[in-house]
Amino acid sequence: MASPLHRHCSSLDEVIFPDQQCLTPEEHDKATKLFDKLIERFEPLQTSNKDYRPLTLIRLTKEEVSAEDEFLILFFTLIEHDHLGVTTEIRVAEVLARLHTFERWTSEEQNILLQCLVHFADYLIDNFFLPHSLEPTIGTPQHIPDLRQACLTRDRHRCVVTRKFDIREAEKRCKVLDGDNVKDDDGNPLLQEAKGMTYLEVAYIIPHSLMSHSDIHIAGESKLATHKILMMFDPKTISLINKTNINQQLLNTLTLTHDLHQSFRAFEITFEQVQDHPHTYTINYIDPNRMFRIHRLPITRTLYATPNGSIEPPSPQLLKVHHSIGRILHFSAAGEYLDKFIQDMEEMEEGGGICSNGSTRVDDYVRCVAFDYSALYAWVLKSPAT
Fold first, then answer.
1. Contact 313, 271 (CB under 8 A)
2. Peptide bond into 298 cis (omega under 30)
3. 0.90 exceeded by the pTM?
4. Cβ–Cβ contacts within 10 Å for residue 367, how many?
5. How far apart are CA 284 and CA 277, in angstroms?
6. pLDDT bucket at 145, cuts 50 / 70 / 90
7. Whole-angstrom distance, CA of residue 227 vs CA of residue 224
8. How many whole angstroms separate alpha carbon 207 and alpha carbon 186?
């Protein structure tokens, strides 16, 4: 029997992140089968006027998370909240029992359900993917000298991708030694590389600004959702990022050239681990068909630890999460959507109120500044790129 129509929410902003629930093996199987049916039914119906593919984003996110039960619980409870227009607690078993007949619902009822799925994708964008795209300059490794120096030391003052040497470090060494005798960290002459050096930057793998609250329980609701979704990709992620010890913070850093840093922070290039080869990665553009390439990729690199082992290589878990986010953003077209969104918000912040194409995005702008990451967004607008 089809569910009666209810007033459904226009967004999930007021819904509290669901309490911890556990799925029985039977519930897991039912939830997985129902999820697959919903995606199979509605993914081909994604409206062309949407700036990204919301059902594809949902499907890819489920494929990439490791905590599948937690994602299914979030998915079904939030679309039920949206569909019923309530904010009270809902049990997954109740949702599964009500939705399993959705294929026999009327067209109008199915269209409302589709809109609830789209709202869930928007929820993921607002609470997870957009905050990852808004990395401020303040608090980045460039502004923490000890962290920057330790990262450069571990990575032997070379970009982990191109292996180009840091020109600042080379100039320092030239002031101490005669140019002909300047050597790199492995004792090799640097003079022959003089024309191939560049300025290097230290990049966070996962934006550290997302972890500005050490106690997740005192964070705002949006940041709480960001943390919990991040932990669905890997339960150890928060503990890896939220460290005060420099050696532990270094697990979340890489040394890159400026252009590679920009591509990496935009999830355009990612590191995919080579099986059975510790700390060895294939580095490539997330779009294998990308036409314009600054660097010739793919390339395989092994990441360094310090010779005495005091500083470990970058975290494989964090690089895997970064790779997963890159896949989701690319194949759902959400990456382009977020780039355009941020550009439009910058124009509105500057007082134009009108986007470059003559349209307005007032609703999106209001939604953006309503979330806890509004301060983070302001940092982006006021800070130069790093």
1. no
2. yes
3. no
4. 16
5. 17
6. confident
7. 5
8. 31
